[in-house]
Every structure is written in structure tokens, then in C-alpha cells.
């Protein structure tokens, strides 16, 4: 009896200590690269979104949910991560459906251009999945995303991946042991500064313009999932200058959208409101705050026209109160970034000092 | 395929459950099946070679046994009609016939082993492009050849079931890395029907954890440094080379004895006791003592099957005892060297052991007189001195295996005297942020790991008071955190698995 | 038996073989010395020692055990 008790005690001790050590050693993604914290941020939202926006940095810094709400009454959340590939996007969709069923999904199709998990894709995989709640769909998507060196087990027990961080522990690991600071507003990563685009290399000719099967499969999966749940699927391409979006690719997407009766919004060809001298913070890759607000105002009316399920929800007291809070935070961040830009010409500290602002 | 893989450990858990829940007569076939599967992962060619060896050895052992039975029956039948001399002559003639079969069997097995070893040697110097990696071939060859000799000697009953013989040959915990078990020590345990013995099972698990700790926290960590030091061996002479040799000793012990701990632990979990292979080797007081503590099953194998038979062989009888001993010692250590690989460094390593042993043997009377004369030789301080002396001596001998380069090793020995570079060595740590391929914090972990290895000499605690369950839980956690595994760590096989 | 004790005392003058038992007193004969012992026994008792018994400690833990072995071998 005493022996069984001591074994039981050791087991409890082990599980507790393992959990604590794992939590301590996992990257907190609170400073660079803070984008790793984006996935988990969804679980702190109110799970009452009509529109879920899924994609890479081509969405999370390009569309402003606060503008979507304040001016059009669409409650939206952006589920984006850096270099989010098609199968990552499918993971985001499946994970979202475990918590809520939105009316519409706006999907960035830019990642179709990446055919297979890249060899150096491990850090991006981790950023997508580290914050995601464990579930079978998640593990299925992990399996498809993994590079050959990775192991599934390290997503179930991240300690297996991050154990060697014991040498790199810093105050952030203690500070954010229990809590995290917000790094986005409903998935929107704000950058108010400007880095105009310079010379853009002419696009290279490709030997083959077909997309990879894995990416196409993920797209078809998402189509099937949204159809099954009665969700409107809307395809979207952001107005980025880089990486170049070939016409051949676009033709495929247009064709796909027509075939399946999906609305497709290509912001490259249809917008003249974006000026990459002013509306980008990284030379034409992504939009800054001003660019995102412009694009949102351009996109939203089209959305209301083409996605009948999206209606103006302003005036519902619970939503109004919730979005009031988000808008206040949004304005505070904007003010802080603008103040820093006025002082130093760039945004650095005000991104990392979100805690004081929120 | 090594012990350190989630697949292996997961499979092991399933196997434990099956082993103790299936009908008991399924136990040994289950182990055989698992062993074949484990071995097949190393390659089909290796599996085929193993099966051929077992089949040939089985046939020869059966035949020798048949001859033996006929011989006994004949003697019993004619007990009264034969004189003692007649009986002796008859027995000798029968023995010769059996010996012929034994030699045929040994030749067959060892020529296969030699072919693989020579293939390895040629591949090392790029004469042949590549070769199939016959993991653990020496280990099973030595087990099966020991079995053949024991059958010939009449020491053991022949195994009539070839599948049971196959299980003894490649029982998977010891298939790849040893210990080199003897048939009479493990056969019963392997083939018996067993009920679960929770105490033994627990001890097995603890033993495995201890092994994983040694291998993953200390061994693999030091290996990173070894790889760094080996990459440009010419640069690190003098104190640097001495340091390399020390690290190599610690690495080899952690890696090899740790893997053996895992082997023994797994076997214990199946209710099977296999031989110990290490007993605190760095506490040895002289080289004889050392070889009774380090890689014990290899040492006793060569003692029983090479040294003893050779030293009492007929053709040696006319020589004085001393000469016999020296010849047998030299041959034994030469073959031990060759066993590790057909390469000069292994041969020189084996012969150095032999030479030191022969010198020590000659000096033994002198030592004994010295010890009698001076009482300080009985003090603890003197014992410590003897331990350190033995440790240093074997550190030097072991150096031949680091570089695979005999002249370079000798140059390094010479540099201890000609250019020890004391100043440069100690300055190195101030001038560099990473010390020989490892960050200072990593060295700290390695040093603490070694301290734990010294502080918990497993062997002594095993039968007496053992650490509580919570200690093992903490150790598992330590392995999870400080073990070298996962992304960014390129795992290599156990050093001793190549043999 | 006396002949054997005489021989053992020559090789190990410090040990009292009337009471010595390796199982309690710790091992005494090591591999190199084993060869000496066997050679002497073979000469003095005119028997042939099979190498197979040399590795078995159960034949050598005491003078009585060695004697039993010698008697067995003489009989063969």
C-alpha cells in the first residue's frame, strides 16, 4: 500500500512538474516573433463572428476588423499567421468550427503558390500550431504540415521540441508564465509606419504555373467544409507587390471560383486606392494601418453585395459593447504608434509595449 | 534503429502488455517475433545473414550432440570389455570427430564475420563504396559461437528447437549492443513461462531510466564535443589531446554502459536476468581489475573461449607456464582488438592492453613484496593513487579508438612531454565563449550528470536500499529537459553498436 | 587431497585452504594464475584438464571443490 502510494505520488509529481516545465520552456512569442501568439488570441475573443478571415500576413495586416464593424457592422476575426500555407488555413478553419460557425469565410488564396511544406518551414509550423488547442483535426493538419525532421509527438508535448530552451530562459518566460498580452486586435496586426516600396524586380517566368496538389487539396477540403456547414466561402487576393502573383495563377483561381460559384475579390487588379508609396510598412509586401483601412473600405461594400449572409449587426447591445472596447484599444495603439513615429520615425517600442496600452 | 525512439518505446509498452496477458506459452515466441522485427529494421540482408548463421550453427550443434550421445552409449555398453586406455583412445577419436564439426561451424561463422569486418575496413578507406551495415553482427556471432563451443565441451544440453536457439541469439534487448550473454546463463530465463514480478519489473524500469539518463544527458552531450575535437585532431595536441582523451573516456562509459543499462532493464521487465557488463570500471585498482569491471561479458568470453583453451592447449604443453601465459595473452588481446574492427588502431589498442597486462604480471611479485614491506600501501590514499593511476593508464590506451589514426595518437602522447601547452589550454577557456563545441552551461550539465553517475553507483544500490519512486520521476523529467534529442540534435548510433 | 593442499599452499602461501571459500571470502584465483594452477595440477596428477571447466567458478571456490573436480577427471 505504501509503495503504491509512493508511486502514485511520484506520478502526480511528474505530471505536474512536466506541465509546469513545459509551460515555462515554451516560447511565449511576446516579443519578436510576436506573431506566434496570434493563433491563441482567438480563444480570448467572444466567438461571435459573422466573418472569419483566414490567410497569411496578406490578411492579418491588410484588413481592419474595427473598420469592418464601425462602418459596416460586420463582426469579424482574422485567423492569420506568417507564411500561413493552405493546409495551415484548413487547420484554422477546422479549429474555428470547434468554437463557432461563422456566416462567411474570407480566404486568402495567395498560399496556393506554395506546393509543399518548405524545408525551413518548421518555425512557421510552430507559430501556427503552438497556440492551437489540441484536437484531432489539429493533429491531422500537423501531420500534413510537418517537415521530415519534425515529430507529431512534439506538438502533443511541446517540451520535446523546446526542452533545449533551458539555456535561453529569460524574464519574459516568467513574466508570461500565466498570462499573455494581446498582440493583435481580433487578429489584426497594426503597423502605422511607412516604408515605401522601392524597385521591384521583374517577375521571373516560371516553367510551370500549376499549383501543388497538396495546396489544391486543402482548398477543396475547405470548400467541402464550408459547404457542409452552410458557410459562404469567399476567395481573396491582397494587393501585395511581392511575391508576384502571376496572371496564370489568377486565371486558375477565377476558373475555380466560377466553377463552384464562389465570389473572388482580387485586390491587385481592382483597386487604385492603394499607393505603395504610402500604404505599406515593408516596401509593398503588406499594408500599413492607413492602407488596411483603405482596403477595408474598398472590400467591405463588395462583401455586402456578394455575400448575402453578411448583414449590418450594429445596434445589438452585446456586440456594440464588445466592439466599443476593441475600438478603444485600437485607437490607443494607433495613438501610441503615431507618437513613436513622430519621435523616432519608426514603430518599435509601441508594438512591444502593448501591455501598457491595452 | 536504437532504443531512443518514441516508436521503440511505444512498441515496447505494447509488447509488455502482450507478454503478460497472452497465454504463457506464447511468451518466448512473442519475444522471438519482436526480436526478428527489431532486427529486420536494421535491414533484410542483415536478418538473412543472421538466420543463415543460426541455421548452420543449429545443424552443427545437433550433429555434435548426436555424436556425443552415441559416444556415451558406446562407452556405457562396453564399460566392462574396454580397458581404461582403450576407452581413452576411443573417447579421443570421437572428440576429434566432434572437434572437426566444431571447427567447421566456427570457421563458417567467423568467415562471415571476417567478410563483414574486412568490408567495413575497405569501406573506411574508400576502396569499396559502401556496405550493408550489419548491426550487432559481432555480438550475435560471439553468442552463437560460445554456444557451439559449450555444446562441444558438453557443458550445456543442445537446444533442439531452432527457433529457441534463434531467440537466444538475437533477443532484441541485447541484439545490438550486448551484453554478450552465455547460453547457460540466460536460456532458462528466456524460455521459461513467467508471471509478472512487479518488483523486478519496477527495477527494470528504473534501470532503463538510469541508462537513458547516462546516454542522453551525459553521453550525447559529450559526443558533440568529441565530434568537435575529432574534426581537427591535429590542432589539439598536448593538454588539449589529454583533455580529449578524458572526455572520450567519460563519453564512452556514459554511452556504452548506459545502453547496456537499458538492455538489462528491458530484459528485467520481461522477467529475464542477463549478465552485468560494467561494475564501476573507474574504481579499478589495476588493469586486471579494470577488465573485470569494463565490458565484462566480452572479457570473460575471450578468457573462456580463447585464453584458457589456448593456454592449456597440447601444442603449448612443452613450454614453461610463463611463456604459455604470455603467448595466450598476446593472442587473446590481438583477437580482441581485431574483434573491434580490422584497423590498425584497434589492433594497437588490443596489443597495448596485452603488453600492459604482461608487464603488470611480471611485476606482480615485485608489487607484492613492496606492498608487504610498506604499510602505507594499505591506506586509503594509496588506494586512491592506484585508482587514479589505472584510470590514467587506460585513458591513454583508449585514445587509440578516438582518432582511428595510430601515428597521430602517438604524436599526441609525445606532445604531452615535448609541447604540453599548459598555458594555451587554460587560456582557451577565457578566450572562447564556446568550449570545444559546447557552451559552458552545457559543460556544467555534463559535469553534473557525471557527478550523479558517480554518486549513484547503480550496481551497489540495486539489491539494497534504492532511491524512492519520486527520484525516478525527477530523473525522467531531467532526461526530458536536459537530454539531447529532438530537432537540431543529430543523433548518432551508440559507439559500441558498430561492432 | 593433501597433495592438492600442498600445491595450493605453494602458490598462495598466505591463504588457509582448510577454510577458504571464494563464495564468502571473495575471489582469489585470477585468469593468469588459473593457468599456473591448472598446469601444476595436470603435471602432478597426470590428468588432462578440459578448458571448458576453467571458466566455471563453481569448480574452484574451495580446495574441496577443486578436489572433487580432479577426482571426476581422473575417473574419465
What would you note in describing this structure?
The complex is a heterotrimer of chains A (358), B (499) and C (76). Chain A has 358 residues and is α/β, with parallel strands linked by helices. Chain A has one domain (27-199, 210-312): SGNH hydrolase (Rossmann fold). Helices cover 48% and strands 7% of the residues of chain A. Chain A has 17 helices and five strands. Chain A has a five-stranded parallel β-sheet with strand order 2-1-3-4-5, with helices on both faces. In chain A, helix 12 links the parallel strand 4 and strand 5 (264-266). The mean pLDDT of chain A is 90. With 499 residues, chain B is mostly helical. Chain B has two domains: 6-195, no CATH class; 200-498, no CATH class. Chain B is built from 21 helices and no strands. Chain C is mainly α and 76 residues long. Chain C has four helices and no strands. The model of chain C has no long low-confidence stretch (mean pLDDT 81). The interface between A and B is medium-sized, with 24 and 21 residues.
Characteristics of this structure?
heterotrimer; B: 499 residues; mainly alpha; 2 domains; 21 helices; 72% helix; 0% strand; C: 76 residues; globular
Fraction of residues in β-strands of chain B: under 5%
How many β-strands of chain B, per DSSP? 0
Assembly form of the protein: heterotrimer
Number of helices of chain A: 17
Number of helices of chain B: 21
How many structural units, i.e. domains of chain B? 2
Identify the CATH class of chain A. Answer: Alpha Beta
What coarse outline of chain B follows from CA principal-axis ratios? globular
Number of strands of chain A: 5
Please indicate the count of domains of chain A.
1
Describe the largest sheet of chain B: none
Tell me the CATH superfamily of chain A.
Answer: SGNH hydrolase
**SSE run of chain B:** HHHHHHHHHHHHHHHHHHHHH
Largest sheet of chain A: 5 strands, parallel
Shape by Cα distribution of chain A:
globular
Sheet/helix structural class of chain A: alpha/beta
| Percent of residues in beta strands of chain A | 5-15%
